[in-house]
Amino acid sequence: MSTVHVTTDRVRIRLRPLEKIFALHGDLDLPRSAVRTAEVLTDGLAATRGLRAPGLAIPGWMKVGTWRGRSARQYVAVRRGVPTLRLTLDRQRYDTILVSTPDAHTAAAALNRE
């Protein structure tokens, strides 16, 4: 399961080894100031938009990788039955990050606290 660590100035998303392999991507490290919104979704699979490139999708179970749309790019690491943290970002490689993690509510609360 992915983990999200929030500090005073950084947001670090640590992926499991298999997620890194399937996504062809490493861990993510973002400045906290780049996070515009943070919210928890019950169904991260349904929130994914665009075409997968690169990554892995197993319908109804998991999606991991990069999803590209007309004007947006999402990083996705979501699983069925696990709360998903959605981060909307400013001036970053990805416009949105969707990551399933058991501590999604705690991370969202920490990011929404000013």
Please describe the structure with a list of short key phrases separated by commas or semicolons.
alpha+beta; 6-stranded mixed sheet; 3-stranded antiparallel sheet; 3 helices; 9 strands; 18% helix
Overview of the structural elements:
There is one protein chain. With 114 residues, the chain is of the alpha+beta class. It has 3 helices and 9 strands. Strands 4-8-9-7-6-5 form a 6-stranded mixed β-sheet. Strands 1-2-3 form a 3-stranded antiparallel β-sheet, covered by helices on one side. It is globular, with a radius of gyration of 13 Å. The model has no long low-confidence stretch (mean pLDDT 91).
Structural class: alpha+beta
Total count of helical runs of at least 4 residues: 3
Largest sheet: 6 strands, mixed
Strand order of the largest sheet: 4-8-9-7-6-5
| Uncertain segments | none
What fraction strand? over 45%
Average residue-wise pLDDT:
91
Task: Estimate percent helicity.
Answer: 10-25%
Strand and helix order:
EEHEEHEEEEEH
Work out the radius of gyration: 13 Å
Overall shape: it is globular
- Strand element count: 9
